[in-house]
Amino acid sequence: EPLELCAFMRGIHSRMAPSFTEKKMALNLVCHGEVYIEADPVRFEQIIINLLDNARKYSEEGTAATMQVFKKNGHIHITVMDEGKGIPEEDQAWVFDRFYRVDKSRSKALGGSGLGLAIVKELVEAHGGKITVRSELGKGATFEIIL
Ligand code: ATP
Ligand code: MG
């Protein structure tokens, strides 16, 4: 069934904002007009929440995370961007693999299993989409879904 992405993302924004405020982080959303996609709302929300969990978990206080939705060349793009520690170039190709974690000891302290992004990738592909990451170490990470 068609899902209106801006309203959907506003819902996620209001549910997730308190956990960002609690960490003294800002959560922004940029989405204009109405953008319709074919998606399972429960699974699609799981995608975005996993990305937001990471954005919060791997960032410091005082930084912002931003979700953005836009159309380009007939495709719909959804980005989740943070200003956190970032992901080293050599690890970027592996972060979607099951149980892969960049810094084993630090990650252990933060909790989690290294499954989040593997699930995200599977769910994105089940929706006919692709997900990529780009990052500059120390400056943040951007995950981009293209539908
Ligand atoms: P889980 O999501 O299962 O609780 P996790 O967060 O460690 O555990 P993933 O979400 O799959 O697992 O992420 C894999 C690894 O990629 C993380 O351990 C972390 O090292 C790195 N990573 C993921 N997202 C970010 C991000 N936004 N900024 C920096 N590093 C990230
Ligand atoms: Mg995670």
Automatic annotation (TrEMBL):
Signal peptide: none annotated. It is found in: Cell membrane. One of its GO terms (cellular component) is plasma membrane. GO terms for molecular function: ATP binding; phosphoprotein phosphatase activity; phosphorelay sensor kinase activity. Residues 1-147 form the Histidine kinase domain. Keywords: ATP-binding, Cell membrane, Kinase, Membrane, Nucleotide-binding, Phosphoprotein, Transferase, Transmembrane, Transmembrane helix, Two-component regulatory system. GO terms for biological process: cellular response to phosphate starvation. This is histidine kinase. It comes from Mesobacillus boroniphilus JCM 21738. The chain holds residues 303 to 449 of 449 of the full protein.
